[in-house]
Specification:
Layout: E1 2-11, H1 16-32, E2 36-52, E3 55-67, H2 69-81, E4 85-92
Antiparallel strand pairs: 1-3, 1-4, 2-3
């Protein structure tokens, strides 16, 4: 299993319940793939330096996961398809 750091930004214009649901869906993608969420942080709402998809604010989340390549690929795919996720970034961490 590889270690990854995943950061994603959810639209701040939707209601809090929908934001939480989107974050839970991202975690569910990982756990459904038999991978493990090591750490999950809600970083809160922040203002963007420039508009992203006509949004000026976003709700940030950070996740550390242990997963296979297939789970990481599925997470990337589903994050790209989710309309509430404005941006996401998956970084493979070095083995220590």
């Amino acid at each position: 299993m590889n270690k990854y750091e995943v950061m994603f930004i959810v639209k701040a214009t939707i209601d809090k319940e929908e934001i939480s649901k989107t974050a839970a869906n991202m975690q569910k993608i990982v756990t459904d793939g038999k991978a493990k969420v090591v750490e999950f942080k809600e970083l809160g709402e922040k203002k963007f330096a420039y508009p992203i998809k006509k949004e000026t604010n976003g709700y940030y989340f950070l996740m550390h996961i242990e997963a296979d390549k297939e789970v990481e690929a599925e997470l990337n795919r589903k994050a790209s398809l989710d309309e509430n996720v404005l941006r996401h970034l998956v970084i493979k961490l070095d083995e220590e």
